[in-house]
Amino acid sequence: MDVSSDPYLPYDGGGGDGIPLRELHKRGTHYTMTNGGNINSSTHLLDLLDEPIPGVGTYDDFHTIDWVREKCKDRERHRRINSKKKESAWEMTKSLYDAWSGWLVVTLTGLASGALAGLIDIAADWMTDLKEGICLSALWFNHEQCCWGSNETTFEERDKCPQWKTWAELIIGQAEGPGSYIMNYIMYIFWALSFAFLAVSLVKVFAPYACGSGIPEIKTILSGFIIRGYLGKWTLMIKTITLVLAVASGLSLGKEGPLVHVACCCGNIFSYLFPKYSTNEAKKREVLSAASAAGVSVAFGAPIGGVLFSLEEVSYYFPLKTLWRSFFAALVAAFVLRSINPFGNSRLVLFYVEYHTPWYLFELLPFILLGVFGGLWGAFFIRANIAWCRRRKSTKFGKYPVLEVIIVAAITAVIAFPNPYTRLNTSELIKELFTDCGPLESSSLCDYRNDMNASKIVDDIPDRPAGTGVYSAIWQLCLALIFKIIMTVFTFGIKVPSGLFIPSMAIGAIAGRIVGIAVEQLAYYHHDWFIFKEWCEVGADCITPGLYAMVGAAACLGGVTRMTVSLVVIVFELTGGLEYIVPLMAAVMTSKWVGDAFGREGIYEAHIRLNGYPFLDAKEEFTHTTLAADVMRPRRSDPPLAVLTQDNMTVEDIENLINETSYNGFPVIMSKESQRLVGFALRRDLTIAIESARKKQEGIVGSSRVCFAQHTPSLPAESPRPLKLRSILDMSPFTVTDHTPMEIVVDIFRKLGLRQCLVTHNGIVLGIITKKNILEHLEQLKQHVEPLAPPWHYNKKRYPPSYGPDGKPRPRLHNVQLKPIAEEREETEEEVHLLNSTTL
């Protein structure tokens, strides 16, 4: 039987195994299994065995963990440590070490995350400037550092110094002219393609998991899914190197999202140093939640925003102690990054700005308009990027990731170089757009016509008419906006590390700066209008275009990710001012509302669904009127439910059942006649238990009776030795009745992290619902069903029955269309007859 089509297999992401017993020994020590034993039992796995069986209690790749069992294992471990700590000083020391191991692992994670973030920032800045030239006096200096010690720089041309040489000066000896421009153009494209090719080659050869943002996979892993190697040391090493190369290549991507992946890799690696976390997948996810907070902390210099990001966006299970440890990890990571000072400005981020003028009430209108733009941009980007990624998966183009990256990098470099705003590093661009025009700014965005009557230089320069440089910059920014929108759609998802935070913020900052300049000029030339009359007098500084850029950046990022609280906190931590929280909140909420009008999924949830990851989104509402009986497996047309009996099966019977089916678990019933539920046994538990018993216990043969009961039934004297497997039986599986609404079942799966749930009717086992079944059901309802409000006479029947009046199976269309009352009554009676005559 095909595992992927198995109707009641606990979801394993396609990794369910149908391994026959004779093949088990070939798997060696890497064969792992999920402990299916009684979660309240501390006895050994098999009776008459003294040592635990290797492989019990762990998970195979692409499987979902059992949160309830993992928490019970942790409680049992904690009780055992507390019971022994008074026996000796050594046991007391072990108890203290166990208690403090959580703080130690998040401290190490914060230290490593901050150090790697500083290294990535410094290397990315140096390699980005390498595309334009090199510092002859010190090769390891970037452009800005190279000119710090020069005495020959001028105020207007502060970035030019004799120590810094462009490639045209080095190769053809010309600093100006068409030849110099063409040579610099060629070298810019050469370095961009070289960096992009090296990045995608390293990812393809050494660590395929190092591509992309990583946040969709982090969210899936934190929900309980196992992806071996995704947070490993090779992924960490390659992601760190290729992230620098990808940012330096000039592609429309950022390093902030992948920094969360880097921090989670650090947390996963350090968790293996502490048995408390290395042997418990649920506890390990608490460390990963803290690591994601540290990643955002060093990405944006926003420790509080990082904690809220982990809570709002990525974490599935977030107890109070994880909140404290996330805060501490973010603090340590930010402290380390501040100590390294990678940007040389004593700040944690490159585009830290401060504004000296307040905002006025009439400005809420353009702020809300920026929020509308952010929501529209988010909805467009999600649909366009998902459509392109789906096309990449379904066409031959997706089979050549290196070629795709080279093409995207070439197009980006060729178009970006002529425009000074697209040629800039994206973080530098955001910094320039955020910056307010002061007396020391020489950017073309600050080329205003000055008042010749001004007698002194002040910090708050009044609104002035725009000069030619400003109008030229606006046209260049409009072209940059179109370029960034198009290229970001095609760049996010290619096989290099690619974050979405910075490109989205850049698009919003460009739009916001354009809107800010427009409002500023409108207020200057029409200061007598009633909306400007009270605040914008002649000579007053009432409009700050940089503030509009900041609000636009937050709105666009919110439209793409649908973050709210954490995003506002991150942005105001960037700017250092609490005064602008209201404009940020208004823009972010507007962008979320507008984006939700086109679809409630953020970009990360959309990519999770595109990749088929088993993720039940807690934000998604279940509004349909289906029952557990409509979703459970097996269907009436399927083979009957495969079950084990309590004490009537032999070892050979169980081996045959395992070899003939691909199910990952079997309900255990009292007998074929009663069908009463006793417990649930996992396939791999049975497989390893029988193999181990045959090796370590004498007298276990194929005809040996297998007993799941507490007491072994009396057997004839000549019978072979029975095998007791009660200790691997889950005596308390979660069960629901067949009339339980699916809304409640979905809620149970989300909040308890279940893998499967048995469906019963008056204590009789009818079927099983797995996480995979729920995801398939939700997808089918999303594609085919518009929820309808049931009328008063709409009984518990939700779907048409599987069999028509002629006894032939009718196709199940997953459609919630109401029937006439008479027809509905006939079908209801038919369903009752079928239910009564069904034999399991």
TrEMBL record:
<dbReference type="GO" id="GO:0005765">
    <property type="term" value="C:lysosomal membrane"/>
</dbReference>
<keyword id="KW-0967">Endosome</keyword>
<keyword id="KW-0868">Chloride</keyword>
<feature type="domain" description="CBS">
    <location>
        <begin position="632"/>
        <end position="696"/>
    </location>
</feature>
<feature type="transmembrane region" description="Helical">
    <location>
        <begin position="287"/>
        <end position="311"/>
    </location>
</feature>
<feature type="transmembrane region" description="Helical">
    <location>
        <begin position="100"/>
        <end position="124"/>
    </location>
</feature>
<keyword id="KW-0325">Glycoprotein</keyword>
<feature type="domain" description="CBS">
    <location>
        <begin position="729"/>
        <end position="788"/>
    </location>
</feature>
<keyword id="KW-0813">Transport</keyword>
<keyword id="KW-0472">Membrane</keyword>
<dbReference type="InterPro" id="IPR000644">
    <property type="entry name" value="CBS_dom"/>
</dbReference>
<dbReference type="GO" id="GO:0008021">
    <property type="term" value="C:synaptic vesicle"/>
</dbReference>
<feature type="region of interest" description="Disordered">
    <location>
        <begin position="821"/>
        <end position="840"/>
    </location>
</feature>
<keyword id="KW-0050">Antiport</keyword>
<feature type="transmembrane region" description="Helical">
    <location>
        <begin position="258"/>
        <end position="275"/>
    </location>
</feature>
<keyword id="KW-1133">Transmembrane helix</keyword>
<dbReference type="Pfam" id="PF00571">
    <property type="entry name" value="CBS"/>
</dbReference>
<feature type="transmembrane region" description="Helical">
    <location>
        <begin position="547"/>
        <end position="572"/>
    </location>
</feature>
<protein>
    <recommendedName>
        <fullName>Chloride channel protein</fullName>
    </recommendedName>
</protein>
<comment type="similarity">
    <text>Belongs to the chloride channel (TC 2.A.49) family. ClC-3/CLCN3 subfamily.</text>
</comment>
<feature type="transmembrane region" description="Helical">
    <location>
        <begin position="230"/>
        <end position="251"/>
    </location>
</feature>
<keyword id="KW-1003">Cell membrane</keyword>
<dbReference type="GO" id="GO:0005886">
    <property type="term" value="C:plasma membrane"/>
</dbReference>
<dbReference type="InterPro" id="IPR002245">
    <property type="entry name" value="ClC3"/>
</dbReference>
<dbReference type="GO" id="GO:0005247">
    <property type="term" value="F:voltage-gated chloride channel activity"/>
</dbReference>
<dbReference type="Pfam" id="PF00654">
    <property type="entry name" value="Voltage_CLC"/>
</dbReference>
<dbReference type="GO" id="GO:0031901">
    <property type="term" value="C:early endosome membrane"/>
</dbReference>
<keyword id="KW-0812">Transmembrane</keyword>
<dbReference type="GO" id="GO:0005524">
    <property type="term" value="F:ATP binding"/>
</dbReference>
<dbReference type="InterPro" id="IPR001807">
    <property type="entry name" value="ClC"/>
</dbReference>
<feature type="transmembrane region" description="Helical">
    <location>
        <begin position="506"/>
        <end position="527"/>
    </location>
</feature>
<feature type="transmembrane region" description="Helical">
    <location>
        <begin position="360"/>
        <end position="382"/>
    </location>
</feature>
<dbReference type="GO" id="GO:0031902">
    <property type="term" value="C:late endosome membrane"/>
</dbReference>
<feature type="transmembrane region" description="Helical">
    <location>
        <begin position="188"/>
        <end position="210"/>
    </location>
</feature>
<dbReference type="GO" id="GO:0005794">
    <property type="term" value="C:Golgi apparatus"/>
</dbReference>
<dbReference type="InterPro" id="IPR014743">
    <property type="entry name" value="Cl-channel_core"/>
</dbReference>
<keyword id="KW-0458">Lysosome</keyword>
<feature type="transmembrane region" description="Helical">
    <location>
        <begin position="402"/>
        <end position="421"/>
    </location>
</feature>
<keyword id="KW-0129">CBS domain</keyword>
<keyword id="KW-0547">Nucleotide-binding</keyword>
<feature type="transmembrane region" description="Helical">
    <location>
        <begin position="473"/>
        <end position="494"/>
    </location>
</feature>
<keyword id="KW-0677">Repeat</keyword>
